[in-house]
Design brief:
Length: 544
């Protein structure tokens, strides 16, 4: 039992900043080729930002929003805003103007930091924003950062210079809301997801333990150099900036995602740890400059969409330690990692590729289950499938101001992911499809992800998305939307079909996959976070 005089420590974000494992104040934080500082300077800048906000009248419970690329400024907001008791709203800069307006008003933003690139967006919707009282400009180039309609109170760097670099951050309830952002790919307007200080600290500690468990593969440790290639507005860049700061590692923030700049930073700053969606890595590996860079020390977690064997093989050939991670916006996000232990690393190449593409093993403190429609657990035999449901200390409590969808998300006491998967006897989960992406041919279900993985292995294919289209006889049939590599012609269609049939003959794919049709496209529609947008593709090609 605690004595009344005993200190009851709360799990607050400030403890990730002020108690890093590696106490190296001289370690660097880098922003493109524009800016460098060490951790000592970073902490002072966080204090200055806290002073700026409180002098503006920001108080506990207020919401402060930011529209910026991945930068040191964003990292400062990750800490300073929730540490004063306010809520950080990470605006998805790739949403439509109307969706951005909706999220600003729905989150009830009081202050808005705006990168100069996004001034035109805010100028279009400014007259309809009801809640924002103060606008602060973020600019790399002050000469071109002008607005006739937005009443900026000043520019970020200039305002910080005026503030004291000392600030005493308060203690408060660890269950206070710290962050809010909005999901993409939903019907209607985006849904607000939120997390408390406790959840973010627990996710940081839980994921770090799992990431540092394997000595020879995929480990994230103090000697790494970290660069995110997942936007900082999306699930806190998967929460890894908090982990990197807690570890005290060198951090590199690339700004806008331009392939040549990303590759230059990986080479120049000796980046060893990153994370991204498959389309981003595919873009980087397609750049001619990638062959001039040593990637043998680069570890990359792939999430947000299925990791195909073709992408793994291509990455491994270039020396990249690539493996899958799994989670959702609603889960903070990490739930599992497909890391290889020493026994796995002794297996043949194909077996290792297979493990790396799996959804992975559950992290500590994560209770992953696969259940049928009646919430009965299915056997872990690598064959039986069902929906993934989950419990963990860091899952969102629901959707902001949306009781109906919150109750549906958490029905029967588990968070429902909507992902269909199996689990083998070694505890490796493997997502076979999203509930909404499964193709129902006659009375049989076909996995769009498995078909994509097979088609991706053909040498002519650059990208592919498999969707269901209407069929009068079968109800649905699979349509593969294929982007070819530059030196291949559309006459390769028969080869791709024959390639797929070989897997059907081996029993790897259901015979109903024989109904597959190929349609060549110049590109695939993507969501705001770089995932293939199957919802839009289904709408576009539903009558083919």
């Amino acid at each position: 039992m605690l004595h009344s005089t005993q200190y009851k420590q709360q799990l607050l974000i400030k403890n990730l900043l002020f108690t890093p494992i590696a106490r190296n104040d001289n370690q660097e934080i880098v922003y493109k080729n524009n800016f460098r500082m060490n951790y000592k300077e970073f902490k002072k800048r966080v204090n200055r930002l806290a002073n700026l906000l409180t002098k503006m009248g920001v108080k506990e419970g207020d919401t402060v929003a930011i529209m910026d690329y991945d930068s040191h400024r964003y990292l400062e907001c990750y800490f300073a805003i929730p540490m004063i008791g306010a809520v950080l709203h990470m605006i998805n800069i790739r949403l439509s103007h109307e969706q951005i307006l909706y999220t600003i008003d729905h989150a009830q933003d009081d202050v808005l930091f705006i990168n100069s690139d996004f001034i035109p967006i805010i100028e279009q919707i400014k007259g309809r924003i009801d809640t924002v009282n103060n606008y602060i400009l973020i600019a790399d180039d002050n000469e071109n950062a002008k607005s006739k309609t937005i009443p900026f109170i000043g520019e970020y760097e200039e305002l910080l210079k005026e503030q004291s670099d000392e600030y005493i951050f308060p203690d408060f309830d660890e269950n206070r809301r710290a962050t809010t952002f909005y999901t993409t790919g939903t019907t209607g307007m985006p849904k607000g997801v939120y997390f408390s200080h406790r959840q973010l600290v627990m996710h940081t500690l839980g994921a770090l333990v799992s990431l540092s468990t394997h000595a020879s593969q995929g480990s994230f440790h103090q000697d790494d150099v970290y660069m995110p290639i997942t936007p900082m507005f999306h699930v806190h860049a998967w929460g890894i900036p908090y982990m990197a700061t807690f570890l005290g590692v060198k951090q590199v923030y690339p700004g806008k995602y331009i392939p040549d700049i990303l590759i230059e930073l990986i080479d120049k700053e000796k980046v060893t740890f990153s994370h991204c969606v498959p389309t981003i890595l595919h873009m980087l590996l397609s750049s001619p400059k990638i062959d001039n860079v040593d990637l043998s020390k680069w570890k990359v977690i792939i999430g947000g969409a299925a990791l195909t064997k073709a992408l793994v093989i291509n990455a491994l050939k270039k020396g990249i330690d690539i493996f899958a991670g799994y989670g959702m916006s609603e889960t903070c996000p990490f739930l599992s990692l497909a890391q290889l232990d020493l026994k796995d690393l002794e297996k043949d190449f194909d077996s290792q590729v297979n493990i790396r593409t799996k959804t992975g093993r559950a992290l500590g403190l994560v209770e992953l289950e696969i259940v049928d429609e009646n919430m009965n657990k299915v056997p872990h035999n690598g064959v039986s499938t069902g929906e993934i449901v989950v419990r963990s200390p860091w899952l969102t409590a629901g959707y902001l101001k949306d009781q109906k969808n919150s109750e549906n998300l958490w029905r029967n006491g588990y968070l429902h992911t909507g992902d269909i998967a199996n689990c083998d006897e070694n505890g490796y989960f493997k997502i076979t499809d999203r509930e909404k992406d499964v193709i129902k041919v006659g009375g049989e279900w076909i996995s769009s992800l498995e078909l994509e993985d097979i088609i991706n292995q053909h040498t002519s294919v650059s990208e592919v998305a498999v969707i269901a289209v209407f069929d009068e006889r079968w109800g649905e049939r699979p349509l593969a939307l294929v982007v070819l590599k530059g030196d291949y012609e559309k006459t390769v269609e028969k080869e791709i079909i024959a390639h797929t049939k070989e897997f059907i003959k081996k029993g790897i794919m259901a015979r109903e996959s024989m109904l597959l049709k190929i349609h060549f496209v110049p590109s695939l529609e993507k969501t705001s976070v770089g995932k293939i947008n199957k919802k839009e593709l289904r709408e576009k090609y539903r009558n083919m």
